[in-house]
Amino acid sequence: MILKKIMRFFCGRSLEKEISKTNSLIYKVEQHEKAAMERLKTQAGNYQTQVATYKKERDIEFKEFIVFMNKQLGLADAYVTHLGDFQDKMFVCCDSWMNTSIAEQEIQLLSARITTKLHLREFITALQMEMNKLSQRKERNEWHHMIKERPVLVSSEFIQRTVCQVNNNQKSNSKSINCNLSRLKSHLTALRREIEELRHKRDQLITSSRDLIEKHQTQKAKLNDQYRNCNKLFREIQDGFSNHFGSVATGNSLADSWIAKIEGAVTLSKLFSTHKGTADIQKEVQHELNDLNNDFQDICSRIKANRQSGDFSTLSGDKATRDRLYHEREQAHKRRREISAARDVIYKRGNELKEMLGKFDTLEPDKSIRRFVEIFGLGKDFDVHRVIGISTRESRRKHYELKNQNR
After folding, report:
1. Which residues lie below 8 Å from residue 230, measured CB to CB, with a gap of 6+?
2. Domain residue extents for the chain
3. What is the mean pLDDT of the chain?
4. Which of 43, 209, 247, 406 is most exposed, with the fewest beta carbons within 10 Å of its own?
5. pLDDT in tens, 194-223
6. Helices (H), 247-278
7. Are 238 and 94 in contact (CB under 8 A)?
């Protein structure tokens, strides 16, 4: 009986301990769960704040993008109108050039006909002079004078017949020459009349061609103004896209700092200029790294030589110098990698912009001019500037190449 009581006492105390221990563990679990829930609530609150902040930033960016696109669409709408007007003016200018060219060709044709008539007139005049000489030779006059002054003393039927025959032949030849001279004179008069008519017609064409040339010059001036307006709008659209997408953060802090230093709009040419300009920075770092490598190799060689010779008098100083050079060399390596990576990012951004802007090339004014030349089959050597008064980028490039070749 006593043993049961003792056992019950110890079992009761063990049970109380276990219950107390269990309650303590339950309390700890509840506290841990409560703390975890608090942490989860705090973390959820932070996530909600971050999501709200991100949403707010995205909304601002989206609104700014909508404003940007609306502006670009407005510019594009105005550009399409200007481009259509430019193409219409280009055909009007080509029509006036054709009229001018036709007038010039007609003038050249009339000038060639007048020159031919003048040569023919000179030939007829020379022929008249020769026939006059033929009809008025000195020997013939002397022969007539001799016959008249010295008549034939011996007369016979044969001599008389011969003299008559000679006189008849002379009269016939003289009459034939005079007839030919008369015909040449008549033809010369008609030729002079034709020359005067042709000259008068040419003068009229020259006068009318001056009006056509003035009209063509006016059309070229209008077309040139429209070309400049189209180019201005087209560059503004391109620069807008280039600045918007070119200034977006790249994720590379050094590249972003270089882009931020670009003055004005971030254009394609400025990006490539920035990439080209940073090459000097990379060269400077590379020269610095080369010098550090040489100094580091020298100090390592000195330490090795002193150890082999047993001279440890400068060992501690040499080791300190080696450690310093090693650290500086690692920093130079790091800077070179950073600069190289940033330059790659800038170059990649430039290529991305170039590819994107290349999609707009079919809409530029120069493309309309090239298409115009292709439609009319005018050939690659066609002088666009003479016809429409515009120097395209391609024609300017050819002009400078030819100018450089002639130097």
Report:
1. 79, 82, 83, 86, 365
2. 252-359, 361-407
3. 78
4. 406
5. 889 989 998 998 888 888 888 888 888 888
6. 253-260, 268-277
7. no
